[in-house]
Amino acid sequence: MATKIVIITAGLREPSSTRLLADRLGTSVRTELTLAGSTVESSFVELRPLGHAIIDAMLSGFPTAPLEEAFGTVAEADGVIAVTPAFNASFSGLFKAFFDVLPEDTLSDMPVLIGASGGTERHSLVLEHALRPMFSYLHAIVSPRGVYAATDDFGSHESGAALADRISRAAADYARLVQGCGPRQPHDAFAEDVAAMERLLQRDSS
Amino acid sequence: MTGMQFGIFTVGDVTPDPTTDRAPTEAERIRATVAIARKAEEVGLDVFATGEHHNPPFVPSSPTTLLGYIAAVTERIILSTSTTLITTNDPVKIAEDFSVLQHLADGRTDVMLGRGNTGPVYPWFGQDIRQAIPLTVEHYGLLRRLWREEVVDWEGKLRTPLQSFTLAPRPLDGIPPFVWHGSIRTPEIAELAAYYGDGYFANHIFWPASHTRTMIELYRKRFEHYGHGTPEAAVVGLGGHVFIRPNSQDAVREFRPYFDNGPVYGHGPSLEEFTSLTPLTVGSPQQVIDKTLGFRDYAGDYQRQLFLVDHAGLPLKTVLEQLDLLGGEVVPVLRKEFAVGRSPDAPDAPTHQSLLRARDAGTGPQTPQTPQTPGS
């Protein structure tokens, strides 16, 4: 059975350096997993076209069809790669808003590789102080090595080589994590709630 | 009345009319609610239900007081709630209030229980929202016994024990008010309704129909699991939200400012998106008829349809006109059409008289049959 990797990317422009980083992480992870003998199916969830739907879901309390489809794609993944631009010392609002409306427990036990892009390398700790804590809070298993790419990384030959090296190390770590975790069962919160209620009713009436 | 019941349910919000910026006073809103209930009876509807809220901008904090008054000025309509908070109200007080109401209204009353999800309300009544589900289970278990047993000895975890307690007055004719359990999307509530073989009411408004379908399928399946009958024999109610004018363009034009500024859905998806995604219908009587008949496609043959008509600052005059259209043009067609092809297994909507007849015939609802699981 193929390993399903879903790449969530919150870049805003075309071409987007966030998407560029996401592509490279995706390719590198695919290479590592393939070398280790897995078949990989990867797909992208681009947040920009879902922007209005995400805010509508926040206001109305329910997702429209394209957003619900994106939720389904994420829920059925064996692993997630999540990449955001760094805005004002944190992830972008759009990136955060997506995870705010994503149904609870979707990312529980999900191996996640984090990435961020930004104008200068001075924002690189955004991975550690914004992305990692949020995914930990969501009970994801965050891969130890994230990748931050600044504009300069795409500039010179030397810095480009250093970025490529960071990407392949992060991808190798993450591929081992995904393999270790194995195929993932999506959480069925609905069935769990009903089962818990049945137990409660039977306890109360016994 | 046989087959299905049709009626209205009110949230009881005091919202400024966005076209005039004028909000009714609380007194005006309460009197308007009574006028709406009387009108509902006059136009031939079967049910009037009021919400329960304990904070502004809402007025119905004491539903049985309101319903007791309405009982005195009506003759035929069933008085109910949408919902009575089983978590924050003491079950002893719920039992008493509805027993008295039942006697005053000569059996024209039932009750829809809900959890309530406004966090701050719980401590106002000495309760803890973190216990919402256990409170629901324990309080409802006690409420059922109070209505069914002459002398109750009871001990739970979340309320002081009762010793040799007898409810006064006893339920009218010894028949407890029929209980509906209402929820938007909490599967636990569908499970509770199924466990006891009570009615299940899906709020169905503000949300896509796909949620309602899932919940009703769950309820019907579990109703059968607990031995109350076939899935078709389960008792289902649905909400709905309509704004009607003879001409559909007029309905859309007139309702748009109330939608755009309304509580819950204002400033989110457009009116057009919302009407395509949720059961909200803004249009002609025929459009309301078509959309409502479509509910059966995913809810099966059901027993009770309540509409929200007085929300978001609509003036009383407009609401009364809505009721004229609902009672005059919509509901008579719905009664006829819903009866066509209705499954013989689908029960009629329960009333005091039907429960009394069932009890006397020995075919009343049975106590839950708890399947034994290993180790329990």
Automatic annotation (TrEMBL), chain A:
<dbReference type="InterPro" id="IPR023932">
    <property type="entry name" value="CE1759_FMN_reduct"/>
</dbReference>
<keyword id="KW-0560">Oxidoreductase</keyword>
<keyword id="KW-0285">Flavoprotein</keyword>
<keyword id="KW-0288">FMN</keyword>
<dbReference type="InterPro" id="IPR051814">
    <property type="entry name" value="NAD(P)H-dep_FMN_reductase"/>
</dbReference>
<dbReference type="InterPro" id="IPR029039">
    <property type="entry name" value="Flavoprotein-like_sf"/>
</dbReference>
<dbReference type="Pfam" id="PF03358">
    <property type="entry name" value="FMN_red"/>
</dbReference>
<dbReference type="GO" id="GO:0016491">
    <property type="term" value="F:oxidoreductase activity"/>
</dbReference>
<dbReference type="InterPro" id="IPR005025">
    <property type="entry name" value="FMN_Rdtase-like_dom"/>
</dbReference>
<feature type="domain" description="NADPH-dependent FMN reductase-like">
    <location>
        <begin position="3"/>
        <end position="151"/>
    </location>
</feature>
<protein>
    <submittedName>
        <fullName>NADPH-dependent FMN reductase</fullName>
    </submittedName>
</protein>
